[in-house]
Each structure stands twice: as structure tokens, then as C-alpha cells.
Specification:
Length: 277
């Protein structure tokens, strides 16, 4: 039997309450019916895609209360006065748990006209809007966590935002000091935006493991695609970086996001990339 539990704010002990019995909130998500993508903060998901974290139970942000089976009989019913303290819905559907973050905007309290045998006016009661899709799904049997937006679940899974890491100050300074980069016009480590710090964190390991000859060909590759977006130094061997936009193009180049279509020969930028093995 499926159930819906809620998690309440400001309760360290016994934060769960039972909300509904014999109820399913969301359509079943089967891993084979959707596309699963390893989490990358710079990846834009397709409509049928979900980010996935494998071995969820072994992650430091795995909630300990999910380590054992959740039995709705072990929880008290939610009392009316606690309705406003809900910050998470948990829909227990078979062996899996579907999560939805509840924010103030999730609550609706307004008069409504209902159409049945006749039109009737219903006085405003507190209601929670159930989203078409959950914010996250814990596939217990596969030990996977599925989600689409890490920001929406960071309060549910404390510490998961570590996956959304930014480059450290030292990493940023080290990058801007590379032999093929020349910071110009007052642009320095303090000028680098958060999105570029996240992109930089993704490419730092790539650069460290790249042999010198590959770096040379990478520079030529970026020059070929970014000559109108990135200024070159007088010796034509360095990229002058004076804006975040220029830095973003270089980081995209390191990720090899630029390509030419085989038939029309149109030069393009891949907004998201996914390894095909």
C-alpha cells in the first residue's frame, strides 16, 4: 500500500508525520524509460532526462532515516496546526520514495467555484500544490537518486550541494596564470563569476592530465572557433582575457564543445555534452 508522509521544519527528533494512506502522488519513474545523466552542473537536461547519483546510500549526504524501511504505521497523523510546518512531501510508492520540496509558494488559500451537479462556492482552505513531477526519486532497489535541479533538493539532502562545487581561489589564480592565458584590463581572480568558477572546477583536472602536445592542439582548436570572441596577444600565442564572456568561451573550448556539422559545415557550440562512451 502506498502512503504519503511529510517532513516538518524545526524538528530534529521524529520529524515525519503521516498525511495520506493508500495514495500515490506521482507517475512511476522506471530507469529504463528515461535517460539518466551523471550529474554535471553545466548540463541542460532534456525533457525526458534526469540526473542520477549512483550508490546513493554510500554518499555523505544520504539521510540516515532512509537507511531502514519506512513503515507508515510508525508515524503519527499530521495535526492541522502543523500544516504550515511542512517542508517536504515523501510519497512512498512501492519500494521507492518520491520527494517534493514544499515552499511558501506551494500553499494555496483562496475561494474557488466548484462545478459538480451545480456550481458551488468553496471557502479557501490550505492546499498544497502537487507538482507534475517530483523533485527527486530514491530508487531503493537500484540505490540511485534521481533529480533534475540540485537547488530544489539541497534542503532535503543536506550536503548534496557539494556536487555543485566551485573552483577555489587558488585554482582560479592558477588557471589565469597558465602559459596560454593573459589576464588583461584589470580582469583577475576576483572578477571570475560563479558560473565560470563552476566550469573551471570541471576542467581543472582535464588540464592537469593533458600532455603538452595536446595543449598545443587545444589552443589551435579554440583559436579556430573563438577568433571573433577571444582576443589574442601580440605574439598570437596567448588568449587575452578581459571579461567573463571571453573566459567562458575558453572554458567551453577546453571541454571541446565547439564543432562543425558534417554536411552544412556550420560551426556550432554544444550547450550541453554527454559522453557516449
Amino acid at each position: 500500500m502506498d502512503h504519503v508522509l511529510v517532513k516538518l521544519k524545526r524538528l530534529r527528533k521524529n520529524p515525519f508525520r503521516k498525511l495520506l494512506s493508500d495514495t500515490t502522488l506521482y507517475p512511476t519513474i522506471t530507469p529504463t524509460d528515461v535517460t539518466l545523466v551523471a550529474y554535471n552542473p553545466d548540463h541542460n537536461l532534456d525533457e525526458d532526462s534526469w540526473f542520477v547519483i549512483e550508490d546513493f546510500c554510500e554518499q555523505p549526504f544520504f539521510p540516515s532515516e532512509l537507511s531502514e524501511d519506512i513503515d507508515s504505521k510508525d508515524y503519527d497523523d499530521l495535526k492541522r496546526e502543523k500544516f504550515g510546518d511542512i517542508y517536504c512531501l515523501l510519497s512512498l510508492q512501492g519500494d521507492d520514495i518520491y520527494f517534493q520540496k514544499v515552499t511558501p509558494s506551494s500553499f494555496i488559500k483562496r475561494k474557488m467555484i466548484s462545478f459538480g451537479e451545480a456550481a458551488t462556492l468553496e471557502e479557501g482552505e490550505n492546499r498544497i500544490v502537487v507538482k507534475k513531477h517530483p523533485d527527486a526519486v530514491f530508487l531503493r532497489g537500484d540505490d540511485k537518486l534521481l533529480f533534475r535541479d540540485i537547488a530544489s533538493i539541497s534542503s532535503i539532502f543536506k550536503g548534496i550541494d557539494q556536487l555543485y562545487k566551485e573552483a577555489t581561489e587558488d585554482q582560479v589564480k592558477e588557471f589565469l596564470a597558465l602559459e596560454f592565458i593573459e589576464a588583461a584590463d584589470g580582469y583577475d581572480h576576483s572578477s571570475v563569476s560563479k558560473p565560470n568558477r563552476k566550469r573551471l572546477a570541471l576542467v581543472s583536472d582535464t588540464l592537469k592530465n593533458m600532455p603538452p602536445e595536446q595543449k598545443t592542439s587545444l589552443i589551435d582548436y579554440i583559436k579556430a572557433y573563438c577568433k571573433d570572441g577571444v582576443e589574442l596577444s601580440d605574439g598570437d600565442d596567448k588568449f587575452k582575457v578581459s571579461s567573463d564572456k571571453q573566459l567562458k568561451l575558453i572554458l567551453y573550448g577546453i571541454e571541446e564543445r565547439f564543432y562543425t556539422t558534417p554536411h552544412s559545415q556550420e560551426k556550432r557550440l554544444a550547450n550541453s555534452v554527454e559522453s557516449m562512451g
